[in-house]
Amino acid sequence: MKISLFHSRVAAMLVMALLLPIIAACGGSSQTSEPTPALPTAAVSTPSQPTTTQPTEPPTPTEESGEPVQPTVPPSDEPITGPLSTPYLEYGVINHLYYTDRGRVLILTNNAGFDWVRQQIHWKDMEGPEPGNYAWGDFDAIVEDVANHNLKLLVSVVKSPDFYNETNGLPRDPKPLGDFLEALMKRYGNKIGAVEVWNEQNLARENGGRVTLEDAGHYVEVLAEAYRRIKAISPGTYVLAAPPSSTGFNREDVAVPDEDFYRAMYSYKNGMIKDYFDAQAVHPGGAANPPQYLYPDEPYTVPNCPPELGSCWTNDATHYFRHIENVRRFMVEEGVGDHQIWVTEFGWATANNTPGYEFGNFVTPEQQAQYTVDAMKWAHEKYRNPDGSSWIGVMFLWNMNFAVIWAGQGNPNHEEASFGLLNPDWSPRPVFDAVQGYLARVKSER
Q1: Cβ contacts of residue 153 below 8 Å, gap of 6+?
Q2: Rounded to 10 degrees, what is the CA torsion of 416, 5, 115, 381?
Q3: Cα(398)–Cα(317) distance, rounded to whole angstroms?
Q4: In this structure, are residues 160 and 199 in contact, taking their beta carbons and an 8 Å threshold?
Q5: Residue 202 pLDDT more than 70?
Q6: Residue 70 carries which DSSP code?
Q7: Can you tell me the mean pLDDT for 391-413?
Q8: Dihedral of CA 270/273/279/285: which sign?
Q9: Which of 194, 96, 189 is nearest to 138 (CA)?
Q10: 3-state class of 264 per DSSP?
Q11: Distance, CA of 335 to CA of 338 (rounded, Å)
Q12: Which residues are CB-contacts of 29 (< 8 A; sequence separation ≥ 6)?
């Protein structure tokens, strides 16, 4: 069952080696984290960073003087009302925009027809070496370039600085994350369209190496603090509750099943979460299963699945794209069905060399293209409220250019590369062309 355990990526290879037997037993993991961006301040690069040395950017005058950075939009005295929702289903893609040919990535994003970009940022790389010292580095240019290409930006915030959590998991005290997000919003304002507060918090590695249902309550407190601080600066910015990893696995040193974690989040303190998020982020699985199938009512059988891979990730609902429907049911049953779902990662891997992602070896590039477009169509046509409005706000495809990044690090066959819309040489894969055609048709009907 999918537990998203490998997604600290290359920087966590030693941990991967130790935990590989657990992953094999559970049936792989979902795509979650992104290659570590180069640090905005001088630091030793990690194996998961591009190895090209970047010039150090001079501090801005406000950083030199210590004066507060002026917000892009001024703080608002308007009352916080929510939840915000999109008027129709929109589409985005996860990009890696740090120290790459960013203009080329964003032009391709425009050409494909996406509305949104998601960029993950590591909090620990933007605050330090002392608490309260913020260094924005190349993120300034990323925000400006995304805006200049008329794209909306979703920021996924992960990884606490060591002084707030020595394992870089969720901060023990919610306030420092609130301080960081307040500084972020004062600097960039409504140029950040949405903030996803953490990632797959039902995994032990996001909670100091151990996770229980009680951690769902702690996450709600963190989310509430983040929501208040973001909305005080930019009320129109969407705040997303982070997506639990799609998994049915239950062990304190690995994961809590996503259904249990969702329900614990929603029931904490009589449902206090209801007032502190706009949309619920979800990471549905896919494995090698076409998007129209869902276990147990409509299970899929992977052709030529070898005995050593068991059922090839077909025997649990969390391995299927349509697990989104289960999450929607959890939300309705727990009283938060008036909030949209944002699918902040979805996609299908193809052949790759990463243990735990063998399901990609059963998906051809042509099937990847077909499954992706079929999933978009399924959500567009079926995931609607009785009044016809979409209960899905935005769908983000994983991913645009990670094949280029991994090729630069000597591993063009990494699983992240296999999910991509581009080949290592920047040429489009069949999925790029298929998505481009589909989005052109959808936008013509808006």
Answers
A1: 116, 117, 118, 119, 143, 146, 147, 191, 192, 193, 194
A2: 110
A3: 20
A4: no
A5: yes
A6: P
A7: 97
A8: negative
A9: 96
A10: helix
A11: 8
A12: 2, 3, 4, 5, 6, 7, 23, 245, 356, 357
Contacts of 251 (CB under 8 A, 6+ apart): none
pLDDT at residue 263, as a whole number = 97
Q: Which pTM was predicted?
A: 0.84
CA distance 240 to 86: 13
Q: Which long-range contacts (CB under 8 A, 24 or more apart) does 10-16 make?
A: 10/35, 10/46, 10/47, 10/48, 10/409, 10/411, 11/36, 11/46, 11/47, 11/48, 13/47, 15/205, 16/355
> Could you tell me the domains of the chain?
9-40+71-445 (3.20.20.80)
Per residue in 348-379, pLDDT tens?
Answer: 999 999 999 999 999 999 999 999 999 999 99
Parallel, antiparallel, or unpaired for β 90-94 and 116-122? parallel
For residue 337, the 8-state DSSP code is T
The residue written with tokens 């799609």 in the block is 246
Separation CA 63–CA 67 (nearest Å): 7
Residue range 66-71: mean pLDDT, rounded: 41
Question: 């959808």: which residue's tokens?
Answer: 442
pLDDT tens track for 155-186: 999 999 999 999 999 999 999 999 999 999 99
Closest CA to 350 of 372, 378, 320: 372
| Nearest partner of 183 among 230, 148, 236, judged by Cα | 230
pLDDT of residue 81: 64
From the centroid of its chain, how far is CA 173? 23
Q: What is the pLDDT of residues 232-269, one digit of tens each?
A: 999 999 999 999 999 999 999 999 999 999 999 999 99
CB 399 within 8 A of CB 344: no
Average pLDDT across the chain, whole number: 86
Phi, psi of 63 (to 5 degrees): -70, -35
| Partners of 281 in the β-ladder | 342
Do residues 39 and 50 touch, judged by C-beta distance below 8 A?
no
Do the Cβ atoms of 343 and 392 come closer than 8 Å? yes
Residue type, 441: R
Residue 433 has pLDDT above 70, yes or no: yes
